Amino acid sequence: MREQNVTGMTVEIKALSKTYRKNNGTVFTAVDNVNLAIHRGEVFGFLGANGAGKTTTIKMMCGLVAPTSGRILLNGCDTGPERGNAMRQIGVVLEGTRNIYWPLSAWQNLMYFGRLKGCSGRALNERSEQLLRELELWDRRNDIVRNFSRGMQQRIAIACALIADPPILILDEPTLGLDVEATQIMKALLQRLAREYQKTVIITSHQLDVVQELCDRVAIIHKGRIIADRSLAELLALFGQGCYQIKAKGNFANLEKNLPGDFSVTEENGTVLLTGPISSQAELYGLLLKIREQGMTLIAASPIEPDLEEVFLKLVKNKGGEGQRWRHAKLC
Ligand SMILES: Nc1ncnc2c1ncn2[C@@H]1O[C@H](COP(=O)(O)OP(=O)(O)OP(=O)(O)O)[C@@H](O)[C@H]1O
């Protein structure tokens, strides 16, 4: 029976672990005590470097890999004892364009996947038409999918994943291989699914600019463990405090050794860029003074906003995750 969903979360992952036994008999932990709670109507980015444990976690959510321990509740249904019900709560696009049948038309794909998921008759026809119109593919419904662009194939895969109207949509690299325009269409579509239809949209992606534009919240997994789980705004703010970039011209050789250790110095087309943490106005003025004393010409000094890529790299490089955030926050 479905567990009453009183938490307002459509996905709850509790103490989830997965271990594999290697050929030499040692045990390898791919996913290590992961806890996540994802809201209805949220676009959630699940990030990690290669081999971090994203796919293993997603596969456990999709019932493709059995957890070693822990629980996954999808809209209140436990993927263990209530696998069938739990699977009805999700639509999954794991390998994008490979999720659909290329020799079939768009319409035939929807009929096929719809029937596979227990839909039939008028309801299936109406749902298919609605999805194809929504995804601006209605005019191409009778065309063979093989001849579609990658972006269109990806949209058909999403339509097939949504055919039974699940509350949760999971997508692995939804914008991989798409051009700029198709990427924009995909981002707008996923955002609309979350905002207008209150779907919980979970994406994995290595394209951090896409994640930054698209996601409300981000979790970062590293060596099987969650090292950050926050709203995007919080994550960026956490790492953005007091970070400055100063532009100047002139010889910086002597200045470099007098800079605080966390500062980086680069030169671009004759302009020297000094980037690093500044904790107070006094510290900023002191540094500007040093630059002038050096005989350099000051061009500009401005606070900088970190992007998700910087935040990701800092967290992953320092491995300690948010537990050490104050130390990292200084490393602008
Ligand atoms: N069936 C398996 N047997 C043994 N080890 C596995 C198995 N599946 C995954 N692993 C290991 O578990 C770790 C996590 O793999 P996973 O595929 O979840 O990473 P990922 O974050 O999805 O990486 P990528 O971004 O490269 O897809 C890796 O070290 C991988 O080699």
UniProtKB/TrEMBL annotation:
<dbReference type="InterPro" id="IPR003439">
    <property type="entry name" value="ABC_transporter-like_ATP-bd"/>
</dbReference>
<keyword id="KW-0813">Transport</keyword>
<comment type="similarity">
    <text>Belongs to the ABC transporter superfamily.</text>
</comment>
<dbReference type="GO" id="GO:0016887">
    <property type="term" value="F:ATP hydrolysis activity"/>
</dbReference>
<dbReference type="InterPro" id="IPR003593">
    <property type="entry name" value="AAA+_ATPase"/>
</dbReference>
<feature type="domain" description="ABC transporter">
    <location>
        <begin position="11"/>
        <end position="248"/>
    </location>
</feature>
<dbReference type="GO" id="GO:0005524">
    <property type="term" value="F:ATP binding"/>
</dbReference>
<keyword id="KW-0067">ATP-binding</keyword>
<keyword id="KW-0547">Nucleotide-binding</keyword>
<dbReference type="InterPro" id="IPR050763">
    <property type="entry name" value="ABC_transporter_ATP-binding"/>
</dbReference>
<dbReference type="InterPro" id="IPR027417">
    <property type="entry name" value="P-loop_NTPase"/>
</dbReference>
<protein>
    <submittedName>
        <fullName>ABC transporter ATPase</fullName>
    </submittedName>
</protein>
<dbReference type="Pfam" id="PF00005">
    <property type="entry name" value="ABC_tran"/>
</dbReference>
